[in-house]
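User: Protein folding is very new to me. Would you mind checking the protein record under this note? It all follows right here:
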Amino acid sequence: MIFEGRRKVHPELRTVIELQEVDRRVSELDAQIGSLPAEAAALESQLSDFLHTLEVRKERLAKNQKERRELEGEIKEIQARISKHRDQLYEVKTNEQYRAMLHEIEGEESNIRTIEDKILEKMMEADELEGHIREAESRLADEKARVGQETARLRALRQEDMDEREKLLARRKEMAASLSDDLLQVYERVRHGRGGVAVAAVREGFCTECHVALRPQLYNEVRSNEALITCESCARILYYVEPPAEPQEAADASGQAAAHH
C-alpha cells in the first residue's frame, strides 16, 4: 500500500489514487476488449487463407491433369499421322518424294519428343502439387481445431474482461460518489486533459509526471499527504511517496526493534 503505516492521510487522497488505478485498469480492459475481435478475425483469416491455398493447388492439379491429357492426345494424333506417312512411303514414285516423306516423319517424331518433355514437366509439377495437397489435408483438421480453440479462448477472455470492467465501473461509481464535487471535477478535467493521468506521485521534490521541481514550501506540504494539493506545472493532484529505506537503515531499524524485545 502507498500509505501503509501512515496515520494521517487525507481520506479523499486515498480515494482519488484508487480511483485513478481503477480508471487505468478500465482503460487497459477497453483496449483489450477492443482488440480481441480483430485477433479473432485474424485467426479466421488464417484459416481462410489456408483453405484458399489448398483449393488453388487442387485447381492447379486439375488443370495440370487436363493439360497432360491434351498433350497425350496430341501425341496420339501425331503418331496416327506418322503411321499414315509410313504407309505412304510404299506408294511414292520418286526418291525426292521418298526423302520428303521421311523428313516429314522426322519432324513429327521431333514434335512428339517436345510434347513428351512438356508432359514430363507436368508430371513433376503434379507430384509437387500432390505432395502439398496431401500435407495440407493432413493438417486441415488440426488447423481447424487450433483456430476453433483459440477463437473460443478469445471469446472467454473477452467475457472475463467485460465482467471485470463492469465490476470496476460499479466500484468507480461508488468512489466518485464519495468524493467532493470540486475534487471530482478537478480529477476529471485533468484526467481528460493529461492523457488519463490526474494524480501524480512526488519523489525527491519532483512531480513524477511533468518532472518539474516543486517549490520547497509546496513540497513540504505535499510530504504530509494531509491536504489536497495540485502541481503548479501540470495541475495534477499530488501525493508523496516515501523513498525506500537504504539497506543499512533497514538493518539498523531491525536491530533496534530486536533490542526492544
